Amino acid sequence: MSADSRPRSTVSAWRPPVTGIAEVFHARFTDHAYPVHVHDTWALMILDGGRVDFALERERYGAGVSDSVVLLPPGVAHDGRTVTETGFRKRVLYLDTSVLPEHLTGSAVDAPLLADPALRGRVHGLHRALRDPDPLEAQSRLAFVGERLRWWLGGRRPMPYEAPRARTAVRLRELLDARAAEGVTLEEASAALGGTHPTHLIRSFRQAYGLPPHAYLTGRRVARARELLLAGMPAARAATEAGFYDQAHLTRHFARHVGTTPARFARPAAGNRPG
Question: What is the pLDDT of residues 123-140, one digit of tens each?
Answer without folding.
Answer: 999 999 999 999 999 999
